[in-house]
Amino acid sequence: xxxxxxxxxxxxxxxxxxxxxxxxxxxxxxxxxxxxxxxxxxxxxxxxxxxxxxxxxxxxxxxxxxxxxxxxxxxxxxxxxxxxxxxxxxxxxxxxxxxxxxxxxxxxxxxxxxxxxxxxxxxxxxxxxxxxxxxxxxxxxxxxxxxxxxxxxxxxxxxxxxxxxxxxxxxxxxxxxxxxxxxxxxxxxxxxxxxxxxxxxxxxxxxxxxxxxxxxxxxxxxxxxxxxxxxxxxxxxxxxxxxxxxxxxxxxxxxxxxxxxxxxxxxxxxxxxxxxxxxxxxxxxxxxxxxxxxxxxxxxxxxxxxxxxxxxxxxxxxxxxxxxxxxxxxxxxxxxxxxxxxxxxxxxxxxxxxxxxxxxxxxxxxxxxxxxxxxxxxxxxxxxxxxxxxxxxxxxxxxxxxxxxxxxxxxxxxxxxxxxxxxxxxxxxxxxxxxxxxxxxxxxxxxxx
Length: 449
Known about the structure:
The protein is 25% helix and 27% strand.
């Protein structure tokens, strides 16, 4: 019997009868994978006959429902990570951790497992590594407990059945892209396998009130690989970001049903594993030298104020098209700010290559970083320094105006704590510490000397 097949887009899940180069639904290229489908006879559905199957739901009054115990949480050894999770790992919750290869996902999960296993039984399931390989990591991190167990499996059915046994309080699944269900013929990592395997594990976790953390792969663009529906199914989505070769690494929640998404945990990698960075501002500024192109930005990551150094370098372009490069800052935003600088000031940047670097591997998503970026560029082009007593923050509009920034009081408090004397900031902020500025051109004339 000939096996029927279909082609499914691995980005959006659209189904095609034959292979095409570009998905017409999400416009992604070479994302279609052939999958086998069962030969189901075409019968007239009950819906077409006007029949409704199923039974009446058993419902209860909302006033009589007992809320979940918020205190029943599994605490990790990292206080900031507990805040990101809303106070710890809630029993019965399913979390999805995503990050670049080699950034430290397995290290973080092993450290979490070791801490929870001091009190509760934990199962670490890996579809990528053997028991011997995981044991080496566990020994390096000091994770030794009789309550910590390991299993190697790529069967979603077996993992879900183990979760349903209720023997473990926490189950780590590394990773969802390696799992497959027996009932589906497609290869592991395809849309159907990821969606159905995730759904099977989630139902088992909710049934037995077991906390589950699932590892997810990311694409080369840095987004979570696989169907978007997986992010909707889970309770918490964590992004593990940073430079895998050094610098700080951050964990932030982009979705959290049980807590805020404004918290952030900052780590650095050491020989004995990941360590929390309690004062990132001091660490980021420890090796700073005040040169032209160097500006201190008072930014906010989640609810945490951080002082970070912005470095700019401007060189004469040897080609007709000037180069713009940004590390830790959005390149499109950089091009916009350069256009504002050229239009609203007398700086000529069309013949200069411009490079921007955010020290420490930080990635800025703060609109108030605009003023620090443009002042660093102007400082580098003019060869002039900004005074060591200043920190900078504020959004720059297309007209060259300096706009207000959120959480200004936290930024100012962090700058005071580290010994700075003034903040060059929007005039709407009423504080003696602030040197108020309204216009970009006047700001550069007055303070870039």
